[in-house]
Amino acid sequence: MLFDTHAHYDDEKFDNDRYEVLKRVHEGGVSYIINAASNIASSIECIGLAQEFDFVYAAVGIHPHNVSESNDNTIVTLADFAGHERVVAIGEIGLDYYYDYSPREIQKYWFAKQINLAKDLKLPIIVHDRDAHEDTLNIIKVERAEEVGGVFHCYSGSVEMAREVLKHNFYISIGGAVTFKNAKKLIEVVKMLPNDRMLIETDCPYLTPEPHRGKRNDSGYIRYVAEKVAEIKGISVEEVAKITANNAKTLFRIV
Ligand code: NI
Fold this sequence. Notes:
41% of the residues lie in helices and 17% in strands. The two termini are 14 Å apart. By secondary structure, the chain is an alpha/beta fold. The longest helix has 18 residues, at 104-121. The protein has helices at 18-27, 40-52, 74-82, 104-121, 133-142, 159-167, 184-192, 222-233, 237-251, and strands at 2-7, 30-35, 56-60, 87-96, 125-130, 150-152, 170-174, 198-200. Nickel (II) ion binds next to loops.
């Protein structure tokens, strides 16, 4: 039983074979997938996929790349979407100072807004933090996101930051980057991460793990992440799969 807690099957890279890929990875042992949204249109597609496939669940939200498009209606629309029974989280939301596609002040404003939406709806959040560790953690604290908790997806921070993240009621999700040659810092994070706060993900079609780096990613490759985590933790791949799937079910309240 493998649970891919972060995927983007609404991405155009899956336009030619989305259904085939989803069927194949499910038959191959991926029991659950959370499809995370990046804007309003993608939120609708995420819900559509979750309706179509009983092993896919949706998150709705505006990615920091796209928050410039947001307006007064955005929160109302997201709240409406979130009422759908297949929606289990608000995400992905956060800050991206690597690409800076949206001005930082606007990113911060919409991150805080969406945290408060999640609190109103009592849904966990899926956090995107790229090169914005300090501000991300700060907003999490100021807005009291710990009331709903959630996950730092594709975690890329330090061990010290991971301790803070855990203290504020968040899980840490490990992605394909853990298989990369320069994964030293992330390996230290996996070592310190308590088993009951650990999740795994692909972030497909992006961030393809070794040995397939460079190719399109899909949830089938989550086993490379699970294998690497198992090696670091000194437990079996089956245990990693079971532990992380149970954690994800608890966080996203999937029975
Ligand atoms: Ni993502």
